[in-house]
Design brief:
The protein is an alpha+beta fold and about 525 residues long. The chain has a single domain (about 30-515), classed as Cytochrome p450, CATH 1.10.630. Helices cover about 55% and strands about 5% of the residues. It has 20 helices and eight strands. It has a four-stranded mixed beta sheet. The longest helix is centred in the middle third of the chain and has 32 residues, at about 280-310. The termini are far apart.
């Protein structure tokens, strides 16, 4: 009898082994294609600089969906509209999680919902963020946007060579006003430096390859004294929490004293019980919206300046429409939004042409999946190559590499029907599915009014060197160690378009702005 049981067990074991081998071979044979790599590190050495361009080049060989090995981590790269929207939008229930970023979790206490894995806290914060930045409530922020656009042009008028500092101040000030109700008047405000360093730390920690522990996770178990990255992250979490809580408490006190300036914190305070948020949750949520908005919008505005230098014909076309609609006796406002389709097309083209997040933010697959004959294992990192999607000649034409706002306009000069599956944006720079940028309505309107106001006020040109030769900026810089893609340092000439520019600007400045202009 015992021999019979032994035979049965052996047979069952052999069958299970054969089944496993068959399944393993099936999965192995159906893995997405991809470039070969080196032992241990995989393909890391091939994607250190401009990885979006490397991925775009590889897609010509391996197709719109391929696999790379990042120190043993299966990483799937999506390079076509169809693959990206099929998986990240239509299968968002499977593809909306985030990778577990060890350093970022410690640095932020896992309180930055843009990087957090899906769970109760993420859901509460995401809903609260949407309620505070949705398309209807954004209209209440229009006066703040117009004020900051005016302040930006005033500073560019007075100190044109420092335009980059002015752009960063304007972006930080606008987001401070929208989130906390308190604009920043000067770039030398110590709060600006503190917040910018906070933003830089968070973005740098989330950048691929920033810390070896993200590749070799066994390092997480090393003693604390051996892990400078851990000690630094814990230190800055305590410091940043104190700063952000202070900003929230100050804003809350102003609201309670009768300050009725619309801002995100006011909405959060009103909805805290309904949303199930603690004060710490609300403080970090406000900081997340500030951080994401200030860094990306200032980077996008730097690309705007470069686009105007390299494409003066687009600059002139926008200025012509602004002159027709606005005239020269007043400055543009957001009431002009519907009447300036070329400027709106220019904003869309700017976001398409130079996405500041060329690889978006990585997603994580929550269970095994199959797509068009390819097996994608659970816990794969999934990266949308936003750069490739935004420059796809099949979708945007053979001139997809060029900056041309007209591609978003019809023959009558009105906006075209948005590109399919782009959530009405005509580009993929705001992301996908459940992870689409909640602040995109704020971003679209603030970019519009800043660009319209600058183009109403100034001509933007390339400078000349000592021999009279034009100095053109580099339009394809390398990543600088952050998630956000910014241009390399560049110069430009900014000159008033007509004699009364300064007169009209000063008509709009309030007493506080005049004293600081």
């Amino acid at each position: 009898m015992s021999n019979s049981y032994l035979a049965i067990e052996l047979s069952a074991g052999i069958l299970l082994l054969l089944a496993y081998q068959k399944l393993y071979k099936l999965y192995k044979d159906h893995r997405p294609p991809g470039p070969s790599g080196l032992p241990i590190i995989g393909n890391i050495h091939q994607i250190r600089t401009r990885p979006w361009l490397a991925f775009t080049e590889w897609s010509h060989k391996y197709g719109p969906l391929f696999r790379i090995n990042v120190a043993g981590q299966t990483t799937i790269i999506l390079n076509s509209h169809k693959a990206a929207t099929d998986l990240l939008d239509r299968r968002s229930a499977l593809y909306s999680d985030r990778p577990r970023n060890i350093v970022t979790r410690i640095l932020t206490g896992d309180m930055v919902f843009a990087f957090s894995q899906i769970g109760p806290i993420w859901r509460r914060m995401r809903k609260a963020a949407h309620d505070a930045t949705g398309p209807q409530i954004v209209k209440t922020y229009h006066p703040l946007m117009e004020r900051e656009a005016l302040a930006l042009t005033s500073q560019m008028l007075n100190f044109p060579t420092q335009f980059n500092d002015h752009i960063k101040r304007a972006s930080a000030s606008l987001l401070m006003a929208i989130v906390y109700g308190t604009p920043i008047m000067h770039s030398d405000d110590p709060l600006v430096e503190a917040i910018q360093q906070h933003v830089a730390r968070n973005l740098a920690s989330a950048a691929p390859g920033a810390f070896l522990v993200e590749y070799f996770t066994w390092m997480e178990k090393l003693p604390r004294w051996m892990c400078k990255w851990r000690r630094d992250a814990e230190y800055w979490f305590e410091k940043d929490s104190a700063m952000l809580n202070g900003l929230f408490v100050d804003s809350k006190a102003r609201q309670e004293s009768g300050d009725d300036v619309p801002c995100v914190v006011a909405t959060l305070i009103e909805n805290m019980d309904e949303e199930g948020l603690s004060e710490a949750d609300a403080a970090w949520l406000g900081a997340t919206l500030f951080s994401a908005g200030a860094e990306t919008s200032s980077g996008q505005m730097e690309w705007f300046m470069i686009s105007m230098i390299l494409h003066p014909e687009a600059q002139k076309a926008a200025q012509h429409q602004i002159d027709d609609v606005v005239g020269r006796g007043r400055m543009p406002t957001l009431e002009d939004y519907e009447h300036l389709p070329y400027v709106r097309a220019l904003v869309k083209e700017l976001l398409r042409w130079r996405p500041v997040l060329p690889l978006g933010v990585p997603h994580r697959l929550s269970q095994d999946d199959w797509y068009e004959g390819h097996y994608i294992p659970k816990d794969s990192i999934v990266i949308p190559n936003v750069w490739a999607l935004n420059h796809d000649p099949v979708v945007y034409g053979e001139d997809a590499e060029e900056f041309r706002p007209e591609r978003h306009l019809n023959d009558a000069g009105n906006l075209n029907t948005p590109t399919k599956d782009t959530h009405d944006e005509s580009h993929f720079s705001y992301g996908f599915g459940k992870r689409i940028c909640v602040g995109r309505h704020v971003a679209n309107r603030s970019l519009f009014i800043e660009i319209a106001t600058i183009l109403w006020s100034f001509d933007i040109r390339a400078p000349l060197d000592e021999s009279g030769k034009t100095i053109l900026p580099d339009s394809k810089p390398k990543r600088d160690g952050s998630l956000v893609l910014r241009p390399d340092h560049f110069r430009c000439e900014i000159t008033p378009r007509f004699p009364d520019v300064s007169v009209v600007i000063r008509m709009y400045l309030d007493d506080e702005q005049l004293s600081k202009s």
